[in-house]
Amino acid sequence: MTTILLIRHGVNDAVGKHLAGRTPGVHLNKEGRAQAQALAALLKDFPVKAIYSSPLERTLETAEPVSEAVGVPIRVHEGLLETDYGDICGKTFEELQKLDIWNELRDEPAAVRFPNGESLQEIQARAAQALQEIAAQYEKDDLVLCFTHGDIVRLTTAYFIRLPLNEFQHLVTTPAAITELRFYEGRVFLVRYNQSLTLKASQYCNSDAVEAG
Fold first, then answer.
1. Residue 213 located in a structural domain
2. How confident is the model at residue 212 (pLDDT cuts 50, 70, 90)?
C-alpha cells in the first residue's frame, strides 16, 4: 500500500491573525523555519520516494529542508493548493467573524461557496482527487510526502474517513503536523492524524506495520 504523509506548512505571521489564502509572499517566520528544520531532522532517514508541495511559498519553504535532507526533489502539485477564499482573502479574523458567510461556514459548511472563490465541496473534491492520483503513481510500500494547508488536510481526511462535510471542522490541524494516509486496493486508511514530530523511520521500513483489514 502507498503511504502518504500529509504535512501542513509551518507557522507564518498570518497564522491566527488574518486569512492568508493564496496571497503571494507569505513566508515562514522564525518559528516556522525551525519547524521545517525539525521536520527535516525527523524525516532524514525515512525511505521517501517522492515529495509534492502546494506552489505557495510557505509550503515550499517547509518542504525544502526535508527535500535536502532526504535527497528527493520537490514536485509542485496544484491540487494541493490552498483554498481560494475569493473576496474574503486577506481579512482579519475579527473582520471575518462579522460576516454572514463566516456563520454559514460554522453552521453548514457543505453549502458554503466563498464569494468569487471555491466551494468547500470543490476544494475537497480536487484535493482528494490529487492525493488519489499521486498515490496511484507509486508501488506498494512507497512513502510519499505531500506539503499542503490546514483546510486541505482537514477536508481530505474527512473525505477519506467518510466524515460528512458539515462535520469537517471537528478535525484540527496544527502547523507542521503530520497526518498519515495509506492507499490500498481502492481503499484509504487513516493511520494517524495531526501528529507533531513523533514518528520513527523504522515504521516505514516494514510493510506489515499496519494491516489493511
1. no
2. very low
